[in-house]
Design brief:
Blueprint: H1 2-20, E1 27-37, H2 40-50, E2 54-60, E3 67-73, E4 79-84, E5 91-99, H3 102-111, E6 115-116, E7 128-133, E8 139-144, H4 150-153, E9 168-175, H5 178-188, E10 192-197, E11 203-204, E12 206-210, E13 217-222, H6 229-235, E14 237-242, H7 245-253, E15 262-263, E16 276-280, E17 286-291, E18 306-307
Parallel strand pairs: 1-4, 5-8, 9-13, 11-18, 14-17
Antiparallel strand pairs: 1-5, 2-3, 3-4, 6-7, 7-8, 9-14, 10-12, 12-13, 15-16, 16-17
């Protein structure tokens, strides 16, 4: 009898815990990457005139005021969000993921003890929106596309043939502690590790995690010492998929590169064995242009090396 009562009590506890932790909504892919620009008109020209993307939404201070947010459209689901630099350093400010339920995601993250928005907002774009800070300090947004939003109004529109890519395949950002990152992205958010590699076979520099309900990835960029400003601009990046990187480079050679921006001449295969070339905004932020297939169509094996881990320099006294 006592054992039966104990079993009933345990089942009640498990049921209560299950009710307290909501089910995680879907994470469908990368919604947008946000960059703060020291020269937003220059960055605007880089994406619009050089890379060939359209701007479906521009939010200003008043009707004719300064630009507050500029949306560059990659496809119906993916954008780059440009904002003028207010403080700190230019570069990647946040990475946003698409979800099917922003408020459900907010409640889920709150139940997991994450630093998440107190409520779901909709703002001037009209999509459901929440923010969360990862344990390593990276800000992520979760966006639920609403049928009456500005982005939904642009569906099927403003995707000119001039754009060099139809898809953001991955986005990468700095991670000082891989174990802490995996506890957040894998254990809480449900991402799945698909590859790791590095220039040195004995060390892991990059870890790729696939979104739970899509095929795009994030690239955790590991490092051991404090990066310089230029290194930060390269580590924090987006990657645009193309079929033929040589043809894309040739196309870009026929376009005017905005002042201070640059396109690397060397096309690399790299450890991941996908041909790619890098271009840089005037503030050093990197946009990787990468073929969506390996050089021989076969998957690249993962590294068995030891992951890099950041070790702060000793403070001089």
């Amino acid at each position: 009898m006592k054992k039966t009562i104990l079993l009933v009590l345990l089942l009640a506890v498990f049921a209560a815990e299950a009710q307290q932790t909501p089910e995680r909504p879907k994470i469908l892919g990368i919604s947008h990457a946000g960059f703060a620009s020291a020269d937003i008109e220059n960055s605007r020209s880089f994406f619009r005139d050089y890379l060939g993307f359209a701007e479906p939404v521009v939010i200003r201070d008043g009707d004719e005021g300064d630009i507050r947010i500029l949306y560059v459209k990659i496809n119906d689901e993916q954008y780059v969000e440009l904002t003028p630099l207010k403080k700190g350093e230019p570069g990647l400010t946040h990475l946003a993921f698409q979800t099917d339920d922003a408020e459900g995601m907010r409640r889920y993250l709150e139940a997991k003890g994450c630093k998440v928005s107190a409520k779901t907002t909709f703002g001037r774009i009209g999509n459901g929106h929440i923010s969360v800070i990862s344990p390593l300090g990276m800000r992520h947004e979760f966006i639920e596309y609403r049928p009456d939003s500005k982005t939904s109004a642009a569906r099927g529109k403003m995707m000119p043939d001039s754009r060099i890519s139809r898809r953001m395949g991955h986005a990468g950002f700095m991670v000082a502690d891989l174990d802490a990152a995996l506890a957040f992205y894998v254990d809480i958010l449900g991402f799945r590790e698909v590859w790791r590699g590095g220039k040195d076979p004995a060390k892991v520099s990059w870890v790729h995690l696939q979104v739970p309900d899509g095929d795009q990835t994030i690239e955790l960029m590991l490092y051991e010492t404090e990066p310089t400003r230029a290194q930060k601009g390269s580590l924090n990046h987006i990657s645009l998929d193309v079929k033929d990187v040589y043809a894309t480079q040739s196309l870009l050679d026929g376009r005017r590169l905005p002042e201070g921006c640059r396109l690397a001449r060397e096309i690399k295969g790299g450890v991941i064995r996908k041909l790619h070339v890098n271009c840089f905004m005037s503030d050093g932020s990197r946009v990787e242009i990468m073929e969506d297939h390996t050089i021989d169509g076969k998957p690249t094996p993962s590294s068995k090396g030891v992951p890099m881990k950041y070790v702060p320099a000793p403070v001089e006294r």
